[in-house]
Specification:
Blueprint lengths: L1 H7 L2 H24 L6 E5 L2 E4 H19 L10 H24 L6 H10 L4 E2 L2 E2 L1 H10 L4 H22 L6 H11 L2 E9 L12 H10 L5 E2 L2 E10 L10 H10 L9 E10 L6 H19 L4 H8 L11 E6 L5 H7 L11 E2 L3 E11 L6 H34 L5 H7 L3 E3 L3 E2 L10 H7 L2 H5 L15 E11 L2 E2 L2 H33 L4 H4 L7 H5 L9 E6 L8 H9 L9 E6 L5 E10 L8 H30 L2 E3 L8
Antiparallel strand pairs: 1-2, 1-19, 3-4, 5-16, 5-18, 6-15, 7-12, 7-13, 7-14, 8-9, 8-11, 10-11, 17-18
Helix pairs in contact: 3-4, 3-16, 4-7, 4-22, 5-7, 9-18, 10-14, 14-15
Length: 653
């Protein structure tokens, strides 16, 4: 049978079949290389696609930025996964709309502007200067090629052009400035009364049913935190040690850097100046020179240089000091004067020296510096620096090998540790807030709790957490405990305290609102205050105010020493009528209630402001208005765009 098939599989029919079969296979292969259809689309903006892969990458970047900004205060539970993904998608949509609008308006970014931005980026610099090797290494660690990064940068710069154009057109009129100053610098005459939460605690404890209901309604408050254990490899340039440096290399480095090891020469000088007028002819200049030569003869015969300078020098700055100019370095004095002074032996008076000011007699009284430090004195420094250079070169080489090995064996760090003779370390339990040392780095924690490492179980990429230190880490999760609800018995006392505090706060606020009602009916603050001080223990509780009336008087919106909630209520209250008072009640963050009385309002004025302060207020207001105007422009562009949003899938941890 096989022989029959072979005999018949000849000629143009067989070749036609082969070609027909090959076409779909070829197209399938091309499609897999191009990624066509491989990434789900989460939105379309005027036909341009935003893929789920792009969204995931931006969500991951946003989490990393939040972690870096908040540090130990970062709590992923504060940023709901679905909400964060939705916010990032909307930002990407707005960016896409803005980019398209910029292209339509003819805005472009030149190659020179892209190059300037790259050169100015601190992450690509070494010792404050752009370093091509650093640039390529940083991009490689981020999975970017220079071409891809430069295109991203070009688009980012392009998007900012329209923003700058719109915000630069903002302005603030004098009337708007006066109105803003009137409100922002307004002061109010207030008094307030604090009702401590502790004075309203319930007599009976909460029932079992109330505790159970609270436990069921607030499970997130009683979760044990998510935590992980890590195994990791740290590569540190400082730990690589210094390589042996030959004596020949040390001597060569010393000779190359001899100027660096030489203290600049300084000379203590004194001089006698006889000026030559700018319009003097040759005969007049020669006469001044002869006078200077005569003074030199006088000094050589035993006259005191300082006394001669005091009597004859025409330099008003040094004559009274005997011609003393102090210690002088190169590059300060007139070139002709400096050349003569630094060629002169100490204690010798020069011949007359012509400068643009006239003729000088110069004497060097002492010399400091000018000699290089001996080789033996700087030898250890050279050993450290040359050895450090070798250590840095070794660091980059090993770092690249470490990144490749941990990528090639994504399920274990052992092959990389053994191949490179590096120590594999393990951690104790670490929560999302971070551990200690390098494990406390936001970049490290973002990777550890990321999808690729935590969910898929892969090794992390090579992470360099420090800007100013050559140190890298690769890690993997060895154990993982997700957040879990703690048993009711364990949190019963917490719930009891929370319920009692909540009831007390509500009761205190209700009493404060009742007081305000009585005050509006004609009572005054002093007459109702004692009603809240029957319980002396309650009066002494809270933030020290008890229920004593506080009289801060005229306060600004940011008055120090006044509780923020009091200021918020005071400046939200209506302006009192003539000789009247307005009242408000509210709850402070600590659960205490407060009653506020506003007795008078004093509007702010630009008349008593310094011109500089007024201009600063105008600039700030203009900036705020301009940014608001730009947001309106973007909102209008988004409203006009053809946008299709697809349902969002799962979250990237």
């Amino acid at each position: 049978m096989l022989q029959a098939i072979k005999e018949r599989a000849q000629g143009w029919v067989a070749w036609a079949i082969v070609i027909l079969i090959s076409i779909p296979f070829a197209l399938w292969g091309i499609q897999s290389y191009l990624g066509v259809g491989s990434a789900p689309v989460v939105a379309k903006v005027d036909g341009a696609k935003i893929t789920e892969r792009q969204l995931d990458r931006n969500v991951q970047r946003a989490r990393m930025q939040l972690r870096e900004r908040l540090g130990a205060a970062y709590d992923p539970d504060l940023f709901a996964a679905a909400e964060l993904r939705e916010q990032i998608r909307e930002r990407m949509i707005r960016d896409a709309v803005l980019l398209e609008a910029s292209y339509d308006m003819g805005l472009r970014v030149s190659d020179q502007a892209v190059r300037a931005a790259i050169l100015a980026e601190p992450a690509f610099q070494s010792d404050g200067i752009f370093d091509k090797a650093t640039y390529e290494r940083v991009l490689r660690l981020q999975g970017l090629t220079p071409a891809a990064y430069e295109e991203q940068l070009r688009q980012g710069l392009l998007s900012t052009q329209l923003a700058r154009a719109v915000t630069a057109s903002g302005f603030t009129t004098d009337a708007e400035l006066a109105s803003a100053i009137r409100l922002l610098r307004q002061r109010r005459d207030i008094a307030y009364l604090v009702l401590p939460q502790a004075g309203f605690l319930p007599e009976a404890p909460p029932t079992d049913a109330e505790i159970e209901a609270y436990y069921q309604a607030n499970p997130e408050r009683f979760e044990s935190p998510e935590r992980i254990k890590l195994s990791y490899i740290v590569l540190d340039a400082d730990a690589l040690g210094s390589a042996d440096v030959s004596e020949t290399d040390l001597r060569a480095a010393y000779e190359q850097r001899i100027d660096e090891f030489t203290t600049p020469e300084q000379r203590a000088l004194r001089h006698i100046l006889l000026t030559v007028p700018a319009d003097a002819d040759g005969a007049e200049a020669e006469a001044v020179k002869e006078r200077a030569a005569a003074l030199k003869v006088e000094i050589a015969a035993g006259a005191d240089f300082a006394a001669v300078a005091a009597e004859h020098s025409e330099d008003p700055g040094s004559a009274d000091a005997g011609g003393d100019l102090g210690m002088v370095s190169r590059g300060i004095m007139d070139p002709a004067f400096e050349q003569a002074a630094f060629a002169l032996a100490p204690g010798v008076v020069s011949d007359p020296v012509r400068s643009r000011f006239g003729y000088h007699l110069i004497e060097v009284t002492s010399v400091e510096g000018g000699e290089p430090k001996p080789f033996d004195e700087v030898r250890e420094e050279l050993v450290r620096e040359l050895g450090r250079g070798d250590a840095e070169a070794a660091y980059f080489e090993i770092a690249e090998q470490l990144a490749n090995l941990t990528y090639e064996s994504p399920d274990s760090l052992i092959p990389a540790a053994e191949a490179l003779d590096l120590e594999m370390q393990t951690s104790d339990w670490i929560e999302r807030g971070g551990g200690e040392g390098i494990l406390g780095s936001p970049k490290v924690m973002t990777a550890a709790f990321g999808e690729d490492v935590l969910v898929r179980g892969n090794n992390s990429e090579l992470i360099e957490p420090d800007r100013d230190r050559m140190r890298a880490i690769v890690l993997r999760v060895t154990e993982h405990e997700p957040a879990a609800l703690r048993p009711l018995a364990e949190v019963r006392e917490e719930i009891t305290a929370a319920l009692e505090a909540d009831q007390a706060s509500k009761a205190a606020l209700a009493e404060a609102e009742s007081m305000v009602a009585r005050l509006r009916d004609g009572s005054d603050l002093a007459s109702i205050a004692p009603a809240a001080t029957d319980d002396e223990d309650a009066a002494d509780a809270g933030d020290g105010a008890g229920t004593t009336i506080q009289e801060p008087g005229l306060v600004s919106r940011n008055e120090a020493g006044v509780p923020p909630k009091v200021l918020e209520l005071a400046f939200a209250a209506p302006r009192p009528a003539d000789a009247g008072t307005t009242y408000a009640a509210g709850e402070q963050p600590n659960g205490d209630a407060v009653v506020v009385a506003v007795r008078a309002v004093e509007d702010g004025s630009a008349d008593d402001m310094e011109p500089g302060a007024r201009d600063a207020e105008r600039r700030l207001l203009t900036q705020i208005r301009a940014e608001h105007g730009f947001e309106q422009v973007v909102d209008d562009l988004v409203a006009r765009a053809d946008i299709e949003r697809e349902p969002l899938g799962g979250d990237t941890p």
